[in-house]
Amino acid sequence: xxxxxxxxxxxxxxxxxxxxxxxxxxxxxxxxxxxxxxxxxxxxxxxxxxxxxxxxxxxxxxxxxxxxxxxxxxxxxxxxxxxxxxxxxxxxxxxxxxxxxxxxxxxxxxxxxxxxxxxxxxxxxxxxxxxxxxxxxxxxxxxxxxxxxxxxxxxxxxxxxxxxxxxxxxxxxxxxxxxxxxxxxxxxxxxxxxxxxxxxxxxxxxxxxxxxxxxxxxxxxxxxxxxxxxxxxxxxxxxxxxxxxxxxxxxxxxxxxxxxxxxxxxxxxxxxxxxxxxxxxxxxxxxxxxxxxxxxxxxxxxxxxxxxxxxxxxxxxxxxxxxxxxxxxxxxxxxxxxxxxxxxxxxxxxxxxxxxxxxxxxxxxxxxxxxxxxxxxxxxxxxxxxxxxxxxxxxxxxxxxxxxxxxxxxxxxxxxxxxxxxxxxxxxxxxxxxxxxxxxxxxxxxxxxxxxxxxxxxxxxxxxxxxxxxxxxxxxxxxxxxxxxxxxxxxxxxxx
Length: 496
What we know:
It contains 20 helices and eight strands. By secondary structure, the chain is mostly helical. The longest helix has 27 residues, at 2-28.
């Protein structure tokens, strides 16, 4: 009987995974290619060509090697290269994240509130930019949720008291978290540091060293992270500039960050009602979304205030939320509403806290579930099948294909996204008052060494500057808002 129930659960999760992946893929296809994510595809393709350590690559502020690049490598290795995986892989990762969150909820005593996960499982048009196209940090979310699921499940091997089991468990945790940390610095502030602080707090409350093991494993992971990065650097692996030095912002900056937090929250949950008529079809829908999201925030504060039995997960989640909110408001991390991506995982932790601890009376179950279904029905943009429409059928890339142009340059946000589906190499450049220079972010230095014979410009001023620096172009072709300049000879752009 137990085996049959386990089999049904596995089949149910597989079916849910397929359905969610299809839905998220169709939602992702409403958005055009983004250079950040296309660069991840190109890096994964280079790994499959034998450049396992991505030698010569300059990556982003974080490498995302294990959390986002390797998932593409695995999928490409299993199914072959296809540009549609640009949308499919992020959809798979977000589907796994939602199923892991649902499984964590299922472990709670009271699970009547699980439909609240719809708040994050049904992304708005703005949220799609943050979790599906491109998938910022979603691989790290999957890793952290998997960590918490294993911890909360407490399988037999996790409870073994033998020395071998303890050492294996500790070293496995250290290695797993260190790989996450070396890929995405967000893990440090939403998993490692909160667990250390929570373990100290729980141990002091219980007057015993019960959580010393997990706290020491997080410390070990932080140390191993530096070892991994040092070993990779000494072996000529990819270069990561890292995050800029942290500092507190000014008082005016904190005020600006608060306004960005408010507007980002409204946009993420499709609740931006400002400037719309006071009607059901105008601001009414957005106000309903605000009620759902705002109610969850209130419930989260209610849980924090009323909860008297703090578990390690509860305290770690609360600390992670507070750390990220403080960093968002008082630091210099916040740029614009897109920066709300740093708070997606804290939002998920908030929902998990609420669902695990707020009791939903049986009589309100259907009403609560109905509201969640209505929220999902009104928040989701219309899915589409096929990625050509959102990308306007790749006009620049098709022009390169027709002219047989394979090596050239373009500003960063035009470079990678115009390199597919016909595979052309567009090295990112920057236009500065002192001249056009190489832009070493999510690019390979070999691209600049081999040079190119065309530039995709985003404005007439850029086209004029390019011809001033490299001489008159043989061809000038306007493609929408872009200008394609083609020279009869290859050339190189100066390094910074």
